[in-house]
Amino acid sequence: MARKISFINYKGGVGKTSLIVNTAACLAKLGKRVLLFDFDTQSNSSIWLLRLERWNKINANGEGAFFSIFEPGTAKVKDLVIKDVVEDKNGQKILPGLDLVPTAFNLVDLESEYQGDPKRPPYVVFQEQLAEIENDYDFILFDCPPNILRASQCGVFVSNEIYVPSNPDALSLIGFTLLVEKLGKFHQLSASFRKASMGVPAQVQGVIFNSIKSGVDIEVPKMRMQLRLNQFRTAKRVAPTAKIFETQIRDAMIVRRAVTLGLPVLLISQDGPDAPAPGTADNVVGDYRKLATEIVRHGQ
Ligand SMILES: Nc1ncnc2c1ncn2[C@@H]1O[C@H](COP(=O)(O)OP(=O)(O)O)[C@@H](O)[C@H]1O
Ligand SMILES: [Mg+2]
Asked: Among 74, 79, 102, 158, which residue has the least CB neighbours within 10 Å?
């Protein structure tokens, strides 16, 4: 059965997208079958993995974008999957095993204009359609915006696990706290729509520290996060196995550049014109690989 994981924090800019794109790439490199959903209207992971030219075609009329399962409602999730999404500049597939369901800017309409059937909230429509293809994958990952509105609800409703990307600062801790509160409320609200086959509602399984600058001591923010996690665990508001992931991702310029290059950092050539400063990329690639391995292990 596929492990379904939402990456979410109520704080923006903490690295949800960079973590999910690079981890997804590492999981695919490990031979896992991975499907990534972009649930953020800003379309960052879609633009990253498709590059602007391919993504512009989808954004132009919304055809092939996630919102099309709701409006006009003719497409099904399975029709939207872009197989082995990552291509080099010549259109050659260079990362078999990583598939994407992209979004376009029209996803914003799901939050306001979309009416739908009140008896079938968007997350129910999505859950039924995902069920048709989920057995094709080992991992299904959801890149969420910093809220639990309708788009995120699709990911959160079907997920078995929630990971919380964080920076070592007070605002990430607030974002995490708010997330746990909103998650509890959403699970209550959606309880009557759950089917037995879906298993229990997803709880926070882990916090992942991202963008750690070398030489900066993060013991204090880490300790504060650990304390909050312990309180939530005692109150049974996060998973009993919830933890701060051992792996933390360092701050590295190549992560920012990877977006422009349209590649996960793992695929950026070490010796070409885009090569990072000696030593820097290797290390952050190593972090992502370690994180992917830790995620694989956490589910066993
Ligand atoms: N490990 C990292 N090192 C350097 N920059 C990073 C790292 N992770 C993320 N960033 C940068 O921080 C910004 C926010 O990251 P992003 O993944 O888009 O966050 P979110 O999805 O939470 O909004 C982006 O410009 C991204 O390139
Ligand atoms: Mg993002």
From this structure: 74
Centre of ligand 1 from the C-alpha of residue 15, in Å = 4
Q: Dihedral of the CA atoms 9, 165, 292, 88 (nearest 10)?
A: 80
Q: Which residues have beta carbons under 5 A from ligand 2 (an ion)?
A: 16-17, 40, 44
Q: Phi first, then psi: give them for residue 133, nearest 5 degrees.
A: -120, -5
pTM check: above 0.70? yes
Decide: helix, strand or coil at residue 219.
helix
Nearest CA residue ID for atom 23, ligand 1:
13
Structure tokens at 162: 């929630």
Residue 102: which of 86, 123, 121 has the closest Cα?
86
Q: Does the CB atom of residue 255 touch ligand 1 within 6 A?
A: yes
Q: Helices in the chain by DSSP H: which ranges?
A: 16-29, 44-61, 77-80, 108-111, 122-131, 150-158, 170-190, 219-234, 253-261, 280-298
Amino acid at 88: D
The CB of 251 under 6 Å from ligand 1? The reply is yes
| Contact indicator for 271, 282 with CB cutoff of 8 Å | no
Q: What is the CATH number of the domain that holds 91?
A: 3.40.50.300
Whether the Cβ atoms of residue 284 and residue 254 lie closer than 8 Å to each other? yes
Task: Phi first, then psi: give them for residue 147, nearest 5 degrees.
Answer: -165, 170
Range of the domain at 61: 3-298
Q: How many domains does the chain have?
A: 1
